Amino acid sequence: MNYYSEKDIRDIVADVLRQAGHASAAPGAAPQQEHTVPVEVSARHVHLTQEAVEALFGKGAALTKKRDLSQPGEFLSGERVKLVTQKGEFSGVAVLGPVRKAVQVELSATDARALGVTAPVNLSGDLTGAGDVLIIGPAGCILQKQCCIVAKAHIHMTPEDAKRAGVTDGQSVRVRLNTARPVTLEDVLIRVKPNFSLAMHVDFDEANAALVANDTTGTILFR
């Protein structure tokens, strides 16, 4: 029978963890280690189709750019809408551009409870199980089915960013928000595209829980 000291056991555990970390890394990726990314907070907002834009703002209407967002090609428009349910409403909700193939309303879990709508935690673009809401604009309204979600926290990266961090597109990671009240978020999705700009997106509930500020960073954790 072999007997191991406490130090032997610690060394064995450390070796197993190192091997597991290398096994999960993508081929050609950098060794997995802590990697820091900037954190941005997404308030409630709406993505519209061109058909919805015209229904809400008038025939032939187009979204007007107010300012660019961090992700290339995306912008905050000058248009605003009202979200209404039998339980509540939100006025002055931001509309983001450009137009999309489907209407999507992104809420925090607190927003969803205030409106009394079903809003599953989905990655942006996934409307599976999404809730319904009445969207009102200055020229009309639409009762939009399956549009309300709580956006899953995610990180935008270029392929170069992903290689440096040792992660791959679609990978789920843990991220510690580095604030006066550190919070670690589980199941944060990595999204990789050549035209992305490095940024982690969280909603207001997550940001408020961790006291996120304008200069907050998040650290990707592998252990």
Low-confidence stretches: 16-31
- Give the overall shape: globular
Gyration radius, rounded:
21 Å
Number of helices: 5
Largest sheet: 6 strands, mixed, barrel
DSSP summary, beta strand count: 14
How much of the sequence lies in strands comes to 35-45%
Layout of secondary structure:
Elements: H1 6-24, E1 35-42, E2 45-47, H2 50-57, E3 65-68, E4 75-84, E5 89-97, E6 104-107, H3 109-115, E7 121-122, E8 131-137, E9 140-151, E10 154-157, H4 159-165, E11 172-178, E12 183-192, E13 199-203, H5 204-210, E14 217-221
Parallel strand pairs: 1-13, 2-5, 6-9, 7-9, 10-12
Antiparallel strand pairs: 1-14, 2-6, 3-4, 4-5, 4-8, 8-9, 10-13, 11-12, 11-14
How would you characterize the overall build of this protein?
The protein has 223 residues and is an alpha/beta fold. It is built from 5 helices and 14 strands. It has helices spanning 6-24, 50-57, 109-115, 159-165, 204-210; strands spanning 35-42, 45-47, 65-68, 75-84, 89-97, 104-107, 121-122, 131-137, 140-151, 154-157, 172-178, 183-192, 199-203, 217-221. It is globular. Mean pLDDT is 90; it is low at 16-31.
Could you write a compact summary of the structure shown?
Helices cover 22% and strands 40% of the residues. It has 223 residues and is of the alpha/beta class.
Q: Keywords, please?
A:
alpha/beta; about 20% helix; about 220 residues; six-stranded mixed beta barrel; 5 helices
